[in-house]
Amino acid sequence: MTTNQHLFSTAQTLMPGGVNSPVRAFGSVGGTPVAMVEGRGPYLTDVEGTEYVDLVGSWGPALLGHSHPAVMDAVRATVEKGLGFGTSHPLESELAELVRSRVPGAEMIRMVSTGTEATMTAIRLARGATGKNLIVKFAGCYHGHSDGLLAAAGSGVATLGLPGSAGVTEAQAWETVVIEYNDREALQKVFSEHSGDIAAVITEATPANMGVVAPEPGFNQLIRELTAADGALMIFDEVMTGFRITEAGYWGASGRNEGWTPDLFTFGKVIGGGLPTAALAGRRGVMEHLAPTGPVYHAGTLSGNPVAMAAGVATLKNATAEVYEHIDQKAQVVADGLADALTDAGVDYSIQKVGSLFSVAFGTSATGVHNYAEAQAQESFRYGPFFHAMLEQGVYLPPSVFEGWFLSAAHEDAAVERILRALPQAAQAAAAAG
Ligand SMILES: *Cc1c(COP(=O)(O)O)cnc(C)c1O
Nearest Cα to 223, choosing from 233, 213, 210? Predict the structure, then answer.
């Protein structure tokens, strides 16, 4: 047994599936999960001492690369003074101001610890602020694992092929209306059938948990128009895309230019720089419904934890225009290399790409992927062999076809070269899969 195999078999006796988050178990790609013990720049090293170029980036937070010196220094300096006090702390406002300077629609901010908590609280706030009950979500959009948002969710729910989750009551599912993404007619129909009862439409800013799926031109704007006309709120989930697609998230590439702003944003991943921080934010008049200024309860022992705030502040301060240019450019190089390798191997595919976020969908070249039904209909059996061929050549991809590939500011030429060199053999493995 290798050390990784030994660790995983021990973990399986201690934790369900041997993991603390399902996709880490390699269920859809097979084989033994790799236990990572160190991250530097674009590289991860596993418990056996094997080095990989990392294209997961801790599922998004590692925008600057692993162990960025400024982030590590900020964390160390904060840790020296204590780990947290359960009181106000100056770094909370510093991070909130950085967020608002990038996304002016984030007029007020509440820090939480996970993206799940951010969207869960945003839903409660939307219901509390509007006095309405129904939530509209899109199939394949993942908003964390709170009960009402698990219906037809993406990410691990998609990877495991679950319709939703056991343990979610019918009553909760009833209050969530699920429609296909990019379906303008379905959206209009929901508003004509349930006018006056809809508290909010929640959407991923640009979906990236069923693989990457671009909103069709005007789709987010239609959500904005219909919610505004009906007195419902628009919740723009930027947990994945916030401070990654542009310095102002996907809103920076869409609403900012098109002249619209959601009522509420949710942020996570990059905002915590690798530590557990997320946030909900938005219009002052809505946000002030939260306790203690309003009647919608939310609290958190670790909310605004100083060490996590320090990591977030250092990450956003160092996420400069050059960082975004670099990531965009390297993502294009890797996506082009991926396309070339698959074409040369005779594999049918589409590259699903929005800004620097992209994923591959097999057997979808005719139409691309615009919604969850199309994402699920792809030839996902090709991904396991592709993934393992990359892993064997020292490239760590997301262990599911339904997840995006994450580049970072630290992916310099040597790391990108290693990815490009590994792609042809992996494309052959995808071609041979059956
Ligand atoms: C990751 C993610 C979440 C959940 O965040 P956690 O920190 O894992 O709870 C919510 N929404 C989107 C769009 C995400 O990508």
Answer: 233
